[in-house]
Fold this protein.
Amino acid sequence: MQVATGSYVKRSGWTLPLSHAPHELDSDQTLVLVFGGSEYVDDPTPFEALRRAFPRAQVLGCSSAGEISGADIADGTLSVAVARFEHTRLATCVAPALANESFAAGQALAQALAAPDLRGTLVLSDGLQVNGSDLVAGLNAVLPERVVVTGGLAGDGDRFKRTWVLDGGVPRSGVVTAVGFYGDRVRVGHGSKGGWDKFGPERVVTRSAGNVLWELDGKPALALYKEYLGERASGLPATGLLFPLAIRKDARDDRSLVRTILAVDEASHTMTFAGDVPQGHLAQLMKANFERLITGASDAALMASTGKDAAGETLAIAISCVGRRLVLGERAEEELEATLAALPPRTSQVGFYSYGELSPYTTGRCDLHNQTMTLTLLREASAA
């Protein structure tokens, strides 16, 4: 497996050489990943250059709330990774990403990719028009538990206006795409950790529908958020990222999932989250702990790195929540430094800040997460 990374900046162009004809990394077993600013939906020229350089490759990507390249974060750029596999077959597919059809979209992607030798799937989705929980449920309904499913929801900074996903190398809104990795040599590692502190009373979700929340303990949830936000309430939904919601089924459930706000509706007094907030579940507000957020990123890298035969080149896809970046501020790059320090030698890291992260909780089936650092590691074993 060979890996190359680079970036595109409007004022200076590409740092990744694209002039080879044909490009030495181009093949049917090459994956090109691109993460960039939402404004590129209006200027697809850089993607055309990638398609010309890698006409045989599988090209995937999405918009971001910050592009990750190594331990650096940028805005309004493109962060690119090219991975040429030697012993791994790749296949991609795309489906519409609409909130009321998200389960069907997950099913359609899974059915298109399903095969006995499928080992892992990376999913990238529109970040505003999808119900992430339903999307994951659709994937899990078809794919066996042995298939590792990871990925993320596209971002748009703290604007929450529009996101894009590459469809045939062209940026489009309202779609979800996936790539499957096939064969006995591919290794797909995964890790996902948060680092937020719970605070205040645990409350019952007394009125909700899917990912739309009305009431906690019989009281308007939006009013509760505004109470905690104080003068920051005028900045919703972006400022709501500072106080994500931890949910669990009941008091016996020791596994909490985190949910973050995508939108608020003042007229109906509702909040829309990136994933479901089921009625009857328990919910508790969370707040940032800087050191634990950075430690959580390191822990995610250690989880993803487990396993033997990690001597070759490795591609690490880091997908961290926009809320973590807003909270960490100038310290955000510390979580990327922490992941790199914990990853195997000869690892190249790219990724993006997202509106939701897809990964197994620790093991088993995929879940939708918010406010986590999620890492996917791709490499090939020296022998099957």
